[in-house]
Amino acid sequence: MGAESAAELRPRIDETLVRRLVDRQFPQWAGLPLRRVDPAGSDHVIHRLGGELSVRLPRHAGAIRQAEKELEWLPRLAPHLPLAVPVPVAVGEPGFGYPWPWAVSRWLDGEVATVEVLGDSAAAAGELAAFLTALQAFAPVETPSEDTGRDMAGQQLSDRDHATRAAIAALDGVFDAEAMTDLWDAALRARRWDRAPVWFHGDFHTGNLLTSGGRLSAVIDFGGLGRGDPAVDLMIAFTLMSANSRAVFRDALGVDDATWTRGRGWALATGLNAYTSYADADPGIAAQTSRQITQALVG
Description:
- By secondary structure, this protein is α+β, with helices and mostly antiparallel strands.
- The chain has 2 domains: 15-106, Phosphorylase Kinase, domain 1 (2-Layer Sandwich); 111-298, Aminoglycoside phosphotransferase (APH), C-terminal lobe (Aminoglycoside 3'-phosphotransferase, Chain: A, domain 2), CATH 3.90.1200.10.
- It contains 11 helices and 10 strands.
- It has a 5-stranded antiparallel sheet, with helices on both faces. Strands 6-8-9 form a 3-stranded antiparallel sheet, with no helix packed on it. The protein has a two-stranded antiparallel ribbon with strand order 7-10.
- Helix 6 runs antiparallel to helix 7 and helix 10 (257-278) packs antiparallel against helix 11.
- The termini are far apart.
């Protein structure tokens, strides 16, 4: 691959490329209009294809397994979940210089959830708790294959220790470094999940929730889907909720103290990672992740 490694590769993705990939591999959709969706996420470039479909191409190597994972598991999960999720239609192959698989899914209408609309909503907190309860209870007849299972095992908080402490040090003065260190130490000391592994979304924050008419309507972006400790999904309590709705959410899920502390640790670690990576370039991300970090400290 030359001087640029697979991990560093960031292919150029424009409408011309997406049009060629769709027309060549899925000629039944060749006549449908194509429009880039902005703002897109940090992992994928998204285009709307006609009125019913979306096309998502990974931006980097870390996102390349999502298409196959969603195609395999979302059709099985969807009937058991109380909110809509993307329905995969097809997985495209590399082509025209683009190196990775890519996905075509059913389009989900809606607007990205915001703190202003849902932050104080006890009803939304209850709906999110019900979604996670249903997800955690999913028990397919077939379990993930060995290869897929490794991909879906999820990280431990300790895997993020070095990067999180480095971010705490780098952001001393922006946030309270002593308070962040105390929380991080507590999260690492908290009793680990010692029950059977359960399903988790893995990236459960406001950007992956859609609303319609001021109510939750869908959950998207299941690239982090896996089985293990559900604490990772508690980050939604600190990205979206106020203290009151957070209490409703925790009570509805029945979260014990150790799991809640690990969840605060996940919110801190992911918030710091996003802040250090994107805040300088995107004021919106700076505001969102600042709130996530400060709310995780509040608990």
